Amino acid sequence: MKKILKLTFISFLIIITFCMINKVKAATTQLSTNSSSITEGDTVTVKVTINAAQWNLTLTANGETLDTWTETVNYKENLSKTFSVSYKATEKGTVKFVLTGDITDVDQTNTEINTNKTVTVKEKETTDTSSEESTTKTPKFTTVNETVYATTQVNVRKSYSTSSAIVGSLEKGESVKRTGIGDNGWSKVTYNGQTAYISSTYLTKTKPIVEEPEEEPEEEPEDTNTTLNENNESNTNTDNTTNNNTTDNETQNNSQNLQLSKLEISGVNFSEGFNPEIYTYELKLNFFVKDLNITAIANKEDAKIEIIGNEDFKEGENNINILVSSADGNETVTYQIKVIVPSEVENNPQNNLQFYLICGIIILAAIAAIIVVIAIYKQKNKREYDDDTEEDFYKFKIDEQYDSEEKPKRTKGKHSN
Known about the structure:
Layout: H1 2-25, E1 28-33, E2 37-39, E3 43-52, E4 54-61, E5 64-71, E6 79-88, E7 93-104, E8 110-122, E9 141-150, E10 154-157, E11 166-170, E12 175-182, E13 186-191, E14 194-199, E15 203-204, H2 226-255, E16 260-265, E17 280-284, E18 294-298, E19 304-308, E20 316-325, E21 332-341, H3 343-346, H4 353-406
Parallel strand pairs: 2-8, 17-21
Antiparallel strand pairs: 1-3, 3-6, 4-5, 4-7, 7-8, 9-12, 9-15, 10-11, 12-13, 13-14, 16-18, 19-20, 20-21
């Protein structure tokens, strides 16, 4: 029985060894990719692994040959080889990698190869660089419906930024419909049927005078009556001069653009100074205030001035808008002051009046408590001193009385024998 079991076990080992030997001798190939899905323009790596004595293989991508591998000399043993090919996808869709040919193992067993792998190519996402740029803070626009004119040649942009795309331009005196006034110094307009933006600095509600080129006067024919013509021309020139001067003065007054003639902030000096043609300023505080004492005066009488945002400053950027409008409401202009409050300024308690008041109250309370303690201490010492004095006096009386009782009494008269 033992011999039968032993022979069975040995036979089993021989069978397993034979199978393993045959398995090692068998030729194999493997086709793989590093990804099954890529984006248009990306590169995929294709790997071919071979375990054979000889081979003749070709790799294609959508019918296009990528590489060919051949081994026909070796016959002693199976060789293990790995080949890699990079493929760049140029358009969306699918790429089919096909490995074809034949392999031969060390026992000269030939195997035909036809295997494939498919990789999906997705469309590359594109970003519109001309779209409106994102900002950390969206400006607020006040809705209006008014006609404004360009004070000079100015660009019309797709968004409220000088880096935004230009969609057109306005010449001096050309009009456009304004639909909003922003707190960032830009105006929202309707231009060629679409919403666009123009810097408010270059817009006015009063149509500016566009100077036309002067035409040379035509030569007048000579007249025989020279004296009469000269007198007439003199009178005419005098009248024209008077009328022209009057018209020029009126035109100058009417064509003057609405602006601020004076802008001052108490306790603050502008580094560049105030210029009526500059509509945006930046001011960085080095001390804490809740608001600014602003003095603004317009260059036209009866103009209305409204200051917005000059209260409860917070850490960071605070925008103050100074809106100037004419008495009839036909002209408006906006000045902006960007007030920057650093965090160390806002959070510094030493610049806070309330901090000083609290400290003063605490110090006064401490002084009052010390005075009360000293007074109580003195009063207690006085009472103890009075008690000690009274006790000493009482003891003195008792001792005096005791002494008087102990002293022998003297008798008068004769001594007895």
